[in-house]
Amino acid sequence: MSGSTTFEFGDDPEAAGRALRDAFGCFTTGVTVVTTIADDGRPVGFTANSFASVSLDPPLALTSIDFKSNSLAHLEASKVFAVNVLHVDQQEIARKFTAKTGDRFEGVETETWGSGVPILKGCMANFELETHHAFDAGDHRVIVGRILKVRYDPHHEPLVFLRGKYRKVHTEL
Ligand SMILES: Cc1cc2nc3c(=O)[nH]c(=O)nc-3n(C[C@H](O)[C@H](O)[C@H](O)COP(=O)(O)O)c2cc1C
């Protein structure tokens, strides 16, 4: 069955938003929780799928944060953050870190490395980063981080996000 849609960006911002979401939704991503630490030591974190590798030497990766996100000010202030890559059994954590109320870290095991930001235990991968540079791009702020430390366990199946839903994929090592 074929159901392809073509959309040219023009005068209808509502239709453009829909087309863009649907088109972006065709790109399969992993799911991460981006964490940092507030001035008062409180852990901060939110679910993000905008994580991309940028450079091997120096080691850089980026994430992009909505200006509406409450975490953005803390990320900007602390200049250190972690990207915690979730595996398929951590969908509940992905859901938790979008919750508008309650303590997102309740029941979530964390540790700290050198920077003091929360590192979620048991993930498929963890990246600890310091902000290398950041810039505004439309309604998001892009933060490029220099990677300080990584931990990874490729023996997990990843949690993936496709067409607006969390999905499972089966992979061969
Ligand atoms: C799968 C998924 C991916 C998301 N990716 C991002 C992202 O890359 N950047 C972002 O700013 N928000 C992203 N969000 C939305 C935030 O998780 C959500 O708005 C969260 O409540 C923000 O929390 P905060 O306001 O406490 O920072 C994503 C949500 C989901 C479900």
The major pleated sheet works out as: 7 strands, antiparallel
CATH architecture: Roll
- Beta-strand residue percentage: 35-45%
Q: What small molecules does this complex bind?
A: flavin mononucleotide
N→C terminal distance: 31 Å
**Number of helical runs?**
3
- For the secondary structure, the number of strands is 12
User: Structural class from helices and strands?
Assistant: alpha+beta
Give the number of domains. Answer: 1
Describe the structure in brief.
With 173 residues, the chain is of the alpha+beta class. The chain contains three helices and twelve strands. A seven-stranded antiparallel β-sheet has the order 3-2-6-9-10-5-4. Strands 1-11-12 form a three-stranded antiparallel β-sheet, with no helix packed on it. A two-stranded antiparallel sheet has the order 7-8.
